[in-house]
Structure formats: C-alpha cells, structure tokens
Amino acid sequence: SGITTILASRINKVEVYAIAGQAIVLPLWFMSGAFFPASSLPGFLRPFAIYNPMTYATQAVRDVMILGYFPSGAIVLDFSVLIVFLLFGVITSIFMFKTHID
Q1: Considering only CA atoms, which of 100, 79, 83, 81 is closest in space to residue 6?
Q2: Angle formed at CA 31 by CA 45 and CA 40, multiple of 5 degrees
Q3: Which of 9, 29, 66, 95 has its CA 20 to 30 A from that of 18?
Q4: Tally of structural domains, the chain
Q5: Burial of residue 28 (number of CB atoms within 10 Å: 0-12, 13-18, 19+)
Q6: Which residues have a Cβ under 8 Å from the Cβ of 31 and sit 6 or more positions away?
Q7: What is the span of the domain harbouring residue 21?
Q8: Where would I find the ABC transmembrane type-2 domain in this sequence (predicted)?
Q9: CA distances from 39 to 10, 17, 34, 58, 97 (A)
C-alpha cells in the first residue's frame, strides 16, 4: 500500500492511478510466490521476489494455512520485513504528499 500511496501523491486522475497501480501491483503479486514457487523464477527475476513485500506476506499466510499455526522464527522474519516496507512506504508517501501540496 505504501507503493500505491506514493503513486497517488503524484497522479491527479483516478483513472490513471487505477491503471498505474495495477501495473505495479500485479507483477509484484505474480512474483511473490502466490501462484508458483519463487524459486522457479528465472535467475534475473529472483532478486525482485526477494525484495518484494508480497513475498513475505504470501509466505506468512501460507505457513498459517498449511501448518495451522505461526512458526515462530519464520513469522518474525516475515512480519519484520513487512514492517520495514510499511514504515518506508508511509514515511516516503507523507514526504511526497507534503512536497506535492507545498
């Protein structure tokens, strides 16, 4: 959501924002490992999966759905990475909105 909020700070038309948001979110979703293992991605796309916040959200949900509980070590890593991405997105979007308004 931080990525799309940053995008919203720069786009004035709702129609353009909807298309641009999907153009960013859909590739992230496909590379997250939600549909197929991220390890099966070509070598040049694997870094995108590693630095993709959706990869960690997908893994956390998968662990809970398959195992039936939160595995302590893995879930801490997943949520830590998600919190870092969240803080980066929120802080950046606040800065972008402030500079856009001023």
Answers
A1: 100
A2: 65
A3: 95
A4: 1
A5: middle
A6: 38, 41, 45, 48, 49, 52, 54, 55
A7: 2-101
A8: 1-100
A9: 34, 31, 12, 14, 37
d(CA 94, CA 96): 5
Q: Identify which of 62, 60, 64 has the alpha carbon closest to the alpha carbon of residue 76.
A: 60
Nearest 5°: the CA angle 60, 63, 66 is 145
pLDDT in tens, the chain (102 residues): 677 778 887 888 888 888 888 888 888 888 888 888 888 889 998 888 888 888 888 888 888 888 877 777 778 888 888 899 889 988 988 888 887 776
pTM for the whole thing? 0.74
Look up residue 40 and give its DSSP letter. Answer: G
